Amino acid sequence: MAEGKGVTRSRENTRARLMEAAIAVFAEVGLDAASVEVICERAGFTRGAFYSNFASKNELFVALAGEVTGERVRLVRQRVAALEARGAFDASRGALEILEEVLDFDAADRTAVLLMSEIRIHALRDPELADAYLAQDDELRQQVMQIIEDIARARALRLRLPADRAARVMLTAWEGAAIRAVMRGLPDQDRVRAVGAEVARIAEILIEPESPSTTQE
Question: Hey, is 14 helix, strand or coil?
Fold first, then answer.
């Protein structure tokens, strides 16, 4: 039994290292230009190790797409749980401050932006990948929608759009700003500031100003 567990753990480690290497390769050159040989070389494995875990490069890409989009949802859930545990959804914090912590502008690094863009491009052509991507994207939107509703309720804010539409607008602005920042070649700190500034502008549009009486309370 112990030996079996050791083999399983070793296989999981090999798979994880291959996927980690593939993230970098797919982000750098895209799915079409990436080769199994380059991925194996980056991970430090042979082609045999690759094909004992994945039937093809496309299968690896689909698995990776599911992991990446799923991780976005898991991270949002973790941040929401941490905020709730600290009682952060109260009137003592600004709405944008909470959104910044949940969306985590620092996570929109160049590799992540390139990889997500590659996933979206291929999801347009691959129905199986499209279904997986859309399901995860919808779950992410639901999480952000719930956060927006919690913030609005805690601070007695009024939204100019329904919460589900506000969440979609917020996520679109966040991702669009991250893509533009990467295209412009901004350094990490400048990229984070640019994304934060864009989300702040959208928040100002979506949230009606608090009345003086509400602010004083």
Answer: helix
179 neighbors 112 (Cβ within 8 angstroms): no
**Taking a C-beta distance cutoff of 8 angstroms, is the pair 126, 65 a contact?**
no
Cα–Cα dist 10/15, whole Å: 9
* Contact indicator for 155, 95 with CB cutoff of 8 Å: yes
How far is Cα of residue 48 from the mean position of the Cα atoms in its chain?
32
pTM above 0.85, yes or no: no
The torsion defined by the Cα of 137, 139, 144 and 147, in degrees rounded to 10, comes to 180
Placement of tokens 């600004």 in the chain: 94
Q: What is the pLDDT of residues 72-85, one digit of tens each?
A: 777 777 877 777 77
* DSSP letter string, 147-194: HHHHHHHHHT--BSS-HHHHHHHHHHHHHHHHHHHHHTT--HHHHHHH
Residue predicted with more confidence, 112 or 14: 14
* pLDDT of amino acid 164: 93
